[in-house]
Amino acid sequence: MTLQVIQIPSEKMDSNSYLIEEGGHVIIVDGSSFEGILEAVREHGWTVDYLVLTHEHFDHIWFLEQLREELSMPVIACSLCSERIRDVKANLSNISDVLYYFKTGIVREGKSPSFTCRAADITFEDSCEMDWQGHHLRMQRLPGHSPASTVVWLDESHVFSGDYLILEEKEITRLKGGSTEDYEAIARPVLERIPEGTCICPGHGPMYEKGQQDE
Ligand SMILES: [Zn+2]
Q1: 175 CA to middle of ligand 1, Å?
Q2: Which CATH number fits domain 4-214: 3.40.50.1820, 3.40.50.410, 3.60.15.10, 2.30.30.100?
Q3: Are 194 and 201 spatial neighbours (Cβ–Cβ below 8 Å)?
Q4: In this structure, are strands 199-202 and 16-22 parallel, antiparallel, or unpaired?
Q5: Which end of the chain offers a freer environment for a tag, N or C, measured as fewer CB atoms within 10 Å?
Q6: Taking the model in full, what pTM does it have?
Q7: How far is the CA of 42 from the centre of ligand 1 (A)?
């Protein structure tokens, strides 16, 4: 088996999508990039089986609908995420320029219109597991950063952590829908138990090995 995990940076913001590839089959994690994802998929002639969402925020779903149009793969998300991507207030796209400014200090030229996405094609409540191309995927909703925040395990080797476990950044729970209580009670204990040496693939910043940041 020749598993590859490829980080694809967004053309629009500092968020990452990922391609998980095995045997010419691909799972996309988050829809924050369009050209980068399409180029990689087309260059290699890969088949996209699924797109999985880590959470509902605009910077992770910018290009979700375009990707669906081009690649027509089923989208997997927890039911709350599926609901919230359809709501401009819940996906925060109604204030994306303000959030972009707070994060980067840059005033974006023109206004980014708020947007919604269609419901996910496959939904689950709090967790879901599946076998894929000889690998095992496990998705678990871990509210805190947002109500629908979900972390995806690929075997025991990789964790797609969305807006958790971003290198050198404290977890953000202050955005609308975020909850420090949920983070402390639900998300944090699970995230802390991820073993050292696991490859963390966050929604922002570089991939790294857990434990590496303490060296
Ligand atoms: Zn987020």
Answers
A1: 8
A2: 3.60.15.10
A3: no
A4: unpaired
A5: C
A6: 0.95
A7: 28
